[in-house]
Amino acid sequence: MQIYWTKINKIIDETPEVKTFLLDRPEDFTWEEGSHTHFALEGFNAGDKPNRSLIRHMSICTLPHENAIGITTRIREQCSEFKTILRSLEVGSKVAIFKTHTNVPLKRENKNIYLLSSGVGLATFRPLVLDYFERADNVEKIHSLNIDSSQDFLFSNIFESVPDKKFISQFVDNRKDYYEKVKNLATDKSGIFYIVGSDEFLTQNMEILREQGIEPEQIMLDKRKDVRDEFISSVYIAK
């Protein structure tokens, strides 16, 4: 396993609780849209075994051509040891990344794509949208729907409807409106539905999609195949 040690190049305050950490890109480090990585703080591998409290599984919110590895996360006032340390880091601080992989690349199957997210889950979708803007081949349209009760919606400069590019972006701040919109989107029986958020959020969305006749193979989750299969089974087979 290769561990890439790099430095924080810039820290962006996206909202009062959300920060984006832009990391220097190691020369031989590359990734695809929708990728996640293991993001670790100094000291995580100092002992005989990795200190898992200093490691988090994070989405990369940038594309390689931006020449920075972007990590966006919410840091509340009351937070974990990891987030407390992360909040104290400054430009120039060292961090590590390793085991980078994507479970949610942009599928180009001449279908409509629906991006369903909660809060900072939108960071996973930022590179998919940018990739689509750069090359729309074999994608009919993209429709993003995000719920965030804080009303501090992320990446509003990118997640803005562009009719000419067949891109629709919607933000809502309550569950009732959100799930009603999900039902409406699911009238497209051949669409591809990406879902990013908490496990509860994934399950609730899949239950609605199942009720509307959306098949498991139309659902994309940012989970390893075995974990994804468990989630799918819990909704589609157990019911």
Fill in the keyword field for this structure:
single chain; 239 residues; alpha/beta; six-stranded antiparallel beta sheet; five-stranded parallel beta sheet; 5 helices
Q: How many E-type strands?
A: 11
| SSE run | EEEEEHEEHEEHEHEH
* Radius of gyration computed on alpha carbons: 18 Å
For the largest beta-sheet, the strand count, sense and barrel status come to: 6 strands, antiparallel
**With helices defined by DSSP (H or I, 4 residues minimum), what is the helix count?**
5
Low-confidence stretches: none
Shape: globular
Helical residues, percent: 10-25%
The mean pLDDT is 94
Assembly context of the chains:
single chain
**Largest beta sheet: strand ordering:** 4-3-6-1-2-5
Distance between the termini: 40 Å
Report the portion of residues in β strands: 25-35%
Structural class based on helices, strands and sheet pairing: alpha/beta
Q: How would you describe what is shown here?
A:
The protein is of the alpha/beta class and 239 residues long. 24% of the residues lie in helices and 32% in strands. The protein has five helices and eleven strands. The strands form two sheets. It has a six-stranded antiparallel beta sheet. α4 crosses α5. The mean pLDDT is 94.
